[in-house]
Amino acid sequence: MSKKVPTESKIRLVIPAKSEYVGLARLTIGGLVRNISDDEEVVEDIKLAISEVYNNIMLQTKAVEQSTVNLVINIYNDEICIDISCSGRDLELTALTPIVWSEPRDRGYGLSLITALIDKVELTQGPLNKTTLRLRKSLIV
Q: What's the rounded Cα separation, in Å, for the pair 1 and 41?
C-alpha cells in the first residue's frame, strides 16, 4: 500500500442521482482509492460496488427531482469506509441476506454482488432515520 493520501482523511461528495453522473462517482472514488492502494483489484471492486449502489439509487429516485447521492469517504490506515445515502427518498435496502440464485427475480442481484466485492456491508439509520449503506474495504494487500 502506498501512502500518497494522508490517513484518517474524510471526503464528502454530493452528486445528482442521475445516470449521467454514475461515471463521475466511479472515477472520483476509483482515483482516490488508486492513490492510497497499489492493488488494482481493490480499486475495481470498489468502483463496481459504487456503480451497483448508484444504479439502485437511480431506480428508486426516478420520480424524485433534485435527488442527490451523498457519499462520505473515510480513509483509515488499513481500510476505506464509504457511507452512501440519498436525499429526496430513503434507500429501500431491507436486508443483506444472500439471495437464492435459482429463484427467478427481476431485482436484488446488485446487493449480492456488492456483498461479494466489499469486505463489510452494513445498513445503518442516520439522521432523520435515513438509511445509509456503509461499505468497508481493506486496503492491505
A: 13
